[in-house]
Amino acid sequence: MKIEARSTRVALIGNPNTGKTSLFNTLTGMRQHVGNYAGVTVEKKTGRWKLPLGTEVELVDLPGTYSLSANSLDERVAVDVLAGHVEGEEPPDLLIVVVDVENLRRNLFLASQASELDVPMVIALNCWDIAEKKGLQIDSKLLEQRLGVPVVPTVAKHKRGTLELAKTVEHAIESRPMMVRPRWPEAVQKALNSLRREFVEQRGQSLREGELQRLLFDRDSAVCERLTCPAAAYKPIIRAARDQLYQDGFQPDAAESLLRFRFLNPLLNDILERQATLKKVSKSESIDQLLLHKVWGLAVFIGMMYVVFQSVYSWAGPIMDLIETGVGYLGDFASSLLETTPMLQSLVVDGIIGGVGAFLVFLPQILVLFFFISLLEESGYMARAAFLMDKLFQWCGLNGKSFVPLLSSFACAIPGIMATRTISDNKARMITILVAPLMSCSARLPVYLLLIGAFVEPRYGPTIAGITLFAAHFIGALMAAPLAFILNKTISRGIAPEPFVMELPHYRVPHIKHTFFRMYESGKDFVMRAGTVIFAMTIVIWALLYFPRPESVAEEVTTTYVQSLTDDWSASPEQEIAGGVLLDEAELQRKIDAAYLEQSYMGRFGKAVQPIFAPAGYDWKITVGVLASFPAREIIISTLGITYSLGGEVDEASDDLRVTLSKAKWESGPRVGEPVFNIPVAISIIVFFALCMQCGATLAVIARELNWAWAIGAFVCLTTIAWTMAVLTYQIGMRFL
Predict the structure, then answer these.
(1) Angle CA 726–729–734, to nearest 5
(2) pLDDT beyond 50 at 577
(3) What is the pLDDT of residues 656-688, one digit of tens each?
(4) At what angle do helices 708-736 and 696-705 cross, to 10 degrees?
(5) What is the phi/psi pair of residue 88, to 5°?
């Protein structure tokens, strides 16, 4: 009998580090996609799995979890999917519980909980190769008889056992095998019956046996969120059932673990006794003596992170340059084709092509970063690194897993924020995301180099300039720690902190195919999701810088320019004689562009808000540069080039731009005729860009990982901090000037 693939969903569930995701990748190959479950940020991975009879089923990779107690968001999603309570998601027709052979008893605890949800089950005994190498002998057939469900040995990364698993699943979808369940003591059954009577029989709640158990055994169970009655009504009922259980001799919070292991132990005892005695220290233990050492382990960790950081920065650099060059050539080509339609030319070149380039340039860094993250995770080292750094981070609300994303954010905050998906503690993950933009990414470097090269180095020399550049990279990091501490104590008070618990997986040789596939997934996710938002933001900024564009502005600038040349001109092959005046077309066009930018909506807005930035020493041109650089920080350089009539092609090393900035004068206000730029102003701008989230791409990714409320809140908060510190820097600096 053929299976209807459209109505068949198979879910993979298991403890972290059991090889569940590797098995998912092996079974689905490239026929999978990644998204988010509706209303939450937990990653949703689904794929198509072709079974031996030629039919396909939908395979769902549920978040790794140690139990169904649902303390964290990903655990809650797993429970909701299994129970069929996720909007737009059908409940699974079959569960594959992935079990690590070496931790059989603990892994089967999750299988025992899942059995209460009335979903057919197959057990995949993964990591069978490691068990064989260690001399472990487990009778899978005997285990299958005792559990009442099929048990299949597998080695996911080598595709061993996958065909047998497919055949077993194909048969199990029709035979619907159910795992044996524990028989609860009379006291537990009585408490469950009281909950069933109150919620199912009297209030009509649709709750499975497993969900009733969650209400009884779990404090503040996620199942409560699905009860239609108010908290004031259901809490006394649950409290009464738990109190009765306590009076009958069972601690409600510990009863389930005690009773389930009491049920599992007799099933596994003689099976586990067949394990060979291992007298010598394992390779993992020998390596851990070095890698977890409080001195040498930290040294290895720092060296490893330096390699990762340097690789993200240096390996991606040439490819990023290539992308920028390609975008430049494409822009020049499009510009030549659209010369007769200036507005369309600007839209295509500056808006569309520039917008696409604005997010594609980050893609190499994302790919390189996730290449290393995948290697570190699959090898088993990532868990060790997290343990090493945990104590240094605990005081401010972060944990050991926060270090790699924060370090990566020094290259680019986007892959750093995406790397926080490895953090299981929702509170620590959220704080890490919010402070990651404070790490000084590579996009800030051009701003630092321009201002330090124009004002610090000429006055104090290259040594002080180098120290200033080094210090600029750590302004945000110094601010991140106290901000994380404040977030931990205030904004995120409603999120219960979790103890940092992580199992140390075995060291394994990374599967290169899976590594490159993860790179592909991460890059595709960034381009399809964050890229669309970044592109839209770039178009909006282009429109604000371009419109309105009355012809009278160009005519007035041309007239003024011609008049300024009437008293001083000389012939030159590169110049065109117009009305007796030697006219430099390129210079005139730069002046026209500067005038258009000044009277654009962005220019007008910059002039309007300039008084807000005046305490930091900014005139309207600097203010417009700050506002225009929202999509990407380095845009301030080309914007300053336009406003100072040098064109938008200047870069941080441009001598003309540095000289022009050093000679710039205030055009209005009480400081008319005084220099705009000096050391305090330059350092003030550096401080502002070091702290402000002037990056539309980062904002979009935060919204993607959390939501737009948090993203906008982070932008406002960091902008306020950046403005405050910039003002303090300028005001204090002027006192010592």
Answers:
(1) 125
(2) no
(3) 788 888 888 887 778 888 888 999 999 999 999
(4) 140
(5) 80, 5
Q: How is residue 402 written in tokens?
A: 């926060």
656 neighbors 650 (Cβ within 8 angstroms): yes
Q: How are beta strands 94-100 and 9-14 bridged, if at all?
A: parallel
DSSP letter assigned to residue 355: H
Long-range Cβ contact pairs of 231-235 (< 8 A, separation 24 or more): 234/199
- What are the contacts of 274-278 at 24+ separation with CB within 8 A? 274/137, 274/138, 274/139, 275/135, 275/136, 275/137, 275/138, 276/134, 276/135, 276/136, 276/137, 278/134, 278/135
> How far, in Å, are 435, 510, 684 from residue 589 at the CA level?
42, 57, 32
**H helices of 176-248, where?**
186-195, 209-217, 231-247
Closest CA relative to residue 357, chosen from 322, 314, 334, 323: 323
Nearest to 21 by CA among 98, 94, 79: 98
Q: Is the pLDDT of residue 500 over 60?
A: no
Name the percent of the chain in helix, strand, coil, to the closest 5: 65, 5, 30
Element containing residue 58 per DSSP (H, E): strand 56-61
Residue count of the chain, please give it.
Answer: 737
Could you report the per-residue pLDDT of 227-275, keeping only the tens digit for each? 777 777 788 888 888 888 888 888 888 888 888 888 888 888 777 554 4
Give every CB contact of residue 197 below 8 A, 6+ residues apart in sequence: none
| Arithmetic mean of pLDDT, 517-533 | 71
Report DSSP state, residue 350: I
Question: In sequence order, which residues have a C-beta less than 8 Å from that of residue 182 and are 6 or more positions away?
Answer: 112, 259, 260, 262, 263
Triad 555, 561, 566: Cα angle to 5°: 125
Closest CA to 448 of 623, 646, 631, 633: 633
Q: What is the pLDDT of residue 10?
A: 92
pLDDT at position 42 is 57
What is the pLDDT, as a whole number, of residue 497? 52
> Is the distance from CB of 419 to CB of 370 less than 8 angstroms?
yes
Q: Residue 108: CB partners within 8 Å, gap ≥ 6?
A: 99, 123, 147, 264, 268
pLDDT at 133: 67
- Quick check: 98 and 14 in contact, CB under 8 A? yes
Mean pLDDT computed over 470-489: 87
Structure tokens at 88: 């737009």
Burial of 235 from C-beta contacts in 10 A (0-12 / 13-18 / 19+): middle
Please state, in angstroms and rounded to a whole number, the distance separating the CA atoms of residues 426 and 382.
Answer: 18
Any idea where the domains of the chain sit in the sequence? 5-175, 186-253
Contacts 24+ apart (CB under 8 A), 650-657: 651/446, 652/445, 652/446, 652/447, 652/449, 652/450, 652/453, 653/449, 653/453, 657/450, 657/454
Q: In what helix (H) or strand (E) does residue 121 lie, and over which residues does it extend?
A: strand 121-126
Please tell me which residue, 330 or 581, carries the higher pLDDT value.
330
Q: Are 507 and 384 in contact (CB under 8 A)?
A: no
| Rounded CA separation 422/385 (Å) | 12
> Model confidence at 583, in pLDDT bands (50, 70, 90)?
low
Q: How far is CA 608 from the centre of its chain?
A: 36
For residue 3, name the pLDDT band (cuts at 50, 70, 90).
very low
Q: State the average pLDDT over residues 17-27.
A: 83
Alpha carbon of 550 to those of 304, 596, 602: distances in Å?
57, 9, 15
Does residue 277 register a pLDDT over 50?
no
pLDDT tens column, 92-145: 999 999 988 878 888 899 999 888 888 899 999 887 766 666 667 777 888 899
Closest CA to 678 of 666, 694, 693: 666
3-state secondary structure of 177: coil
Class of the CATH domain delimited by 5-175: alpha beta
